[in-house]
Design goal:
single chain; mainly alpha
């Protein structure tokens, strides 16, 4: 679910700031072991 939501959000991101926020969210999820290396 996280993966599909993030993919959609990334595709919809229009600014560098939005992409930066999404990147931060992905790596925070990775650090929390919510997503795998491959998913991140």
């Amino acid at each position: 679910m996280f993966h599909a939501n993030m993919r959609s959000a990334i595709e919809g991101a229009r600014t560098l700031a939005q992409r930066d926020d999404l990147s931060r969210t992905i790596w925070q999820a990775h650090a929390a072991e919510t997503v795998t290396d491959t998913e991140a």
